[in-house]
Design a protein that fits this description.
By secondary structure, the chain is an alpha/beta fold. The protein has two domains: about 140 residues, HAD superfamily/HAD-like (Rossmann fold, 3-Layer(aba) Sandwich), CATH 3.40.50.1000; about 80 residues, Up-down Bundle (Four Helix Bundle (Hemerythrin (Met), subunit A)). The protein has eleven helices and six strands. The protein has a six-stranded parallel sheet with strand order 3-2-1-4-5-6, with helices on both faces. Helix 7 links the parallel strand 2 and strand 3. The radius of gyration is 19 Å and the shape is elongated.
């Protein structure tokens, strides 16, 4: 295959996302306990997570926009406590800061540095990570996220939007990601080549059809394959 550019997923491809999300919940809870104790008592972390899931289930029109879903969650939590004007910006700043204090997999940054020297790379994510805050913006030519496009993976249109930005035909783009359905199937159906970052070496789910072009244990293996 002739690869001229790459699109790369972020959460659970470059870093494990759950530790950051859990810390963000704890930081937000601590902020509420200090500044809005009534809300904190009414909405401890498990209850707030359940409310967030309720919002996501109700607002399927916002499946591409985790940020707005979380804003609605906070508005509802405060409204339930009789507070109509939730301090959304302050709450979001606390949450978003922690959400972006991620710890990259050891292989991720060295591999990105190697790859970006030879190929244009675009991040392609359904999440709301901020490359500047994470500290890796310099390695990406473009950042494509579901919130900005209005379309989440695995919809082929978000992959085509990335191809348009990169100025490269889909068949010459290698999409790199951890999720078999969102990343591999989505990219494959959009005409891209696919690299599954399969850190736990799971077998390919047969129900998802054709296997990825590459089944790799980490990004170091991807960089080695591209170098070869």
């Amino acid at each position: 295959m002739k690869i001229l550019a790459l699109t790369v997923d972020l959460d659970d491809t470059l870093w494990p996302v759950m530790p950051a999300l859990e810390q963000a919940d704890r930081d937000l809870d601590a902020y509420l306990r200090q500044h809005h104790p009534d809300v904190a008592r009414a909405w401890p972390i498990p209850a707030m997570r359940a409310l967030r899931a309720e919002v996501a289930a109700e607002r399927t029109d916002l499946a591409h926009d985790f940020t707005t879903q979380r804003h609605i969650t906070m508005q509802r939590a405060f409204a339930a406590c009789g507070i109509d004007d939730a301090p959304l910006q302050a709450l979001w700043d606390v949450y978003f800061s922690a959400r972006n204090r991620v710890e990259l997999y050891p292989d991720a940054l060295p591999a990105l540095e190697r790859i970006a020297k030879h190929y244009p790379v675009a991040s392609l994510t359904n999440g709301n990570a901020d490359l500047e805050l994470v500290g890796i913006r310099a390695h990406f030519a473009f950042h494509i996220c579901a919130r900005d496009t209005g379309i989440p993976k695995p919809d082929k249109r978000i992959f085509h939007a990335a191809a348009d930005l990169l100025g490269v035909a889909p068949e010459n783009i290698l999409h790199v990601g951890d999720d078999p359905e969102l990343d591999v199937v989505g990219a494959r159906d959009a005409g891209l080549r696919t690299a599954w970052i399969n850190r736990r070496q799971h077998p390919w789910p047969g129900l998802l059809g054709t296997k990825p072009d590459l089944d790799l244990p980490d990004l170091a293996a991807l960089a080695q394959w591209l170098d070869a």
